[in-house]
Amino acid sequence: MLRLRSQLQAKKLPPDLVTLIDTIAIAGKDIAFRLQQGAMSGVLGSAEKENVQGETQKKLDVISNDLLKTYLLESNTVRGIASEEEENIVAGHDHAKYLVAFDPLDGSSNIDINSMIGTIFSILHAPTTETVSQADFLQPGRNQCAAGYILYGPSVMLALTTGNGVQMYTLDQRIGEFLLTTDHVVIGKDTQEFAINMSNQRSWAVPMQNYVNDLLAGSEGPRGKNYNMRWVAAMVADVHRILCRGGLFAYPWDNREPKTPGKLRLMYEANPMGMLVEQAGGSAWTDVGPILDIQPETIHQRVPVILGSINEVTACVGYHKNN
Ligand code: AHG
Ligand code: MN
Ligand code: MN
């Protein structure tokens, strides 16, 4: 009864959505197996290719993308996919009910050091028109039917929301099934922990500089408490920590590439994580408004991200309003 598929069926979700989530879970198990083989199966290192965003792809970025693509496009529940590693959307089955946007491997720089990485996914309703196009994917995050990630860590875990709270499942390797391990994830309202790449500090906008300076001032500063810092360099792992014990995660705009609004991608990083965090009682903002209200303009669009414990996100956003 604790198995993923039976849990989803018990929630009386549409059968095609259950099948789709189960398909993503199967792809995740396949990716996890290849990750565990590591150097023994020659999957580490660079693919010596660039993706559409000018990032050098790792072999496992390409392998994970190919696996997800194959599983999803085989499923008659998928009308189309958008991936970090694909320049354009790829059409699936006519009349299928869902679109999937995904980051096949988040935290690529951790692959070769055997550290935390994950797969992030966002599920949207498909159009009822005859053809599927990029425009069909450009729906605000509020429209997501489901969102989640699979974390490849000491345990393989699935965090999932279908719009009614957040559940966590852990892969039982003996039987090859995701089992429900946390039924109701709640992010505490307050925190004394933040996650941000401090090496970019001099490149941030003034409000973010001021906010982090005040965190660093600790109990003697305006925030009146000491903060701890964590940075896994994989959003999926930093968000997982926040779902487990609260905190604030930010990847703000910086002036290294002034025309780029941030590093993280709206459709397959910020939106699914934003839905999970909101569904767990946290908050997910850009510097000007809730992430889930953004009307996307392109599938690979980037956004500044501030998410986590609601009172800390409100405090951080307040610095942007006052400056
Ligand atoms: P990806 O590996 O999918 O390109 O995403 C990496 C992202 C995100 O997961 C992480 O929070 C951030 O890049 C790390 O950035 P830094 O290299 O600046 O630490
Ligand atoms: Mn990513
Ligand atoms: Mn990625």
UniProtKB/TrEMBL annotation:
Belongs to the FBPase class 1 family. Mg(2+) 1 binds at residues 84, 103, 105. It is found in: Cytoplasm. Residues 189-319 form the Fructose-1-6-bisphosphatase class 1 C-terminal domain. Pathway: Carbohydrate biosynthesis. Residues 6-182 form the Fructose-1-6-bisphosphatase class I N-terminal domain. Signal peptide: none annotated. CDD domains: FBPase (cd00354). Its EC number is 3.1.3.11. NCBIfam families: PRK09293.1-3 (NF006779), PRK09293.1-4 (NF006780). This is Fructose-1,6-bisphosphatase class 1. InterPro entries: FBPase_C_dom, FBPase_class-1, FBPase_N, FBPtase. Gene3D superfamilies: 3.40.190.80, Fructose-1,6-Bisphosphatase, subunit A, domain 1 (3.30.540.10). Keywords: Carbohydrate metabolism, Cytoplasm, Hydrolase, Magnesium, Metal-binding. SUPFAM superfamilies: Carbohydrate phosphatase. PANTHER family: FRUCTOSE-1,6-BISPHOSPHATASE-RELATED, SEDOHEPTULOSE-1,7-BISPHOSPHATASE, CHLOROPLASTIC. GO terms for molecular function: fructose 1,6-bisphosphate 1-phosphatase activity; magnesium ion binding. Substrate binds at residues 106-109, 197, 263. GO terms for biological process: fructose 1,6-bisphosphate metabolic process; fructose 6-phosphate metabolic process; fructose metabolic process; gluconeogenesis; sucrose biosynthetic process. Its main location: cytoplasm. One of its GO terms (cellular component) is cytosol. HAMAP family: FBPase_class1. Binds 2 magnesium ions per subunit.
